[in-house]
Amino acid sequence: MKHEIVEKNLGIMVVLIILTISGGFLAEVVPLFFIEETNEPVEGLEPLSALELEGRDIYVREGCHVCHTQQIRPFRAETERYGHYSVAGEFVYDRPFLWGSKRTGPDLARVGGRYSDAWQRQHLYDPRSVVPESNMPAFPWLFEDRIDHTNTEAKMKTLQTLGVPYSDEQIAEATDEVRDKFEIEALVAYLQQLGTVISEKR
Known about the structure:
The protein is mainly α. It has 2 domains: 30 residues; 149 residues, Cytochrome c-like domain (Cytochrome Bc1 Complex, Chain D, domain 2). The protein contains 10 helices and no strands.
């Protein structure tokens, strides 16, 4: 078929575009539903605690995912710097995924346990006091604002319906776990669990 015929006939072009997209979808996406590694959690993966879940929401609210990725690609330069490459089973409970695509700051996929809680707090309060060349903004309000715990149980129930294995007991205790805690505590708890399921580090 000549290319100019397709360009002049909108109907044919639309049909060919749909066929191309459908073929790509069938070849790239559908097989993922049948590969066990993409649907099964890695060994030892637990759903986020109520405090970590609130920390994740603060991470999203403050736009941390805009400058930091949470996926280590299987390239030597990345695995030497950040640790074991990311695998699908680490993210089966994440809604939404926070892999990201832009690295203004370093990847955080394996940051859990790499620095102390005190270091993380200081870095979030005054980034340049611990990393002089950092261009990250400070987040002093996290040290003043308490967690809004009014929706914590509802968030966990929603995630439970999406397949995250929260027990009814965990959900019932969620509000008490986060009540009267500061937002900085939640964010640090979230950061400290990132990538700890796969223990191989740089």
